[in-house]
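Our preliminary data section would be incomplete without showing what the modeling component actually yields. Below, a chain of 107 amino acids is followed by its predicted structure, encoded as tokens that our downstream tools consume directly.
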Amino acid sequence: MDNINNKVYDAVKNSFILLDLDNKNIGKDDWNPLSEIVNPGDRVLIKPNAVFDFSWNINSSVFSLITHESIIRTVIDYVFIDLKGSGEIIISDAPLAYFNFEFEEYS
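Predicted structure:
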């Protein structure tokens, strides 16, 4: 994908690099940031938007809550490469207002 002259692809690629994905191959032709996460035959869910279904800033638009399709497309392209023609990509979202990741163990 290095031959694509696209600012969004570059931004997503740089995000993957900052996340240290496939760091041993950064800058090489075989760099593949999702190779440790996505395998042929996998079902991959992409949840593109933020958790909140509203903006905290009443003066902002709804677009601050929506991931632009060019970013979603770029992530899909990277996933598609790793699926190698076998698997499924699902794009889904749910407007959750709150979620608590902490839990207590019950005896």
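The chain has a mean pLDDT of 82. The chain has two helices and two strands. Preliminary results of this kind motivate Aim 1 of the renewal.
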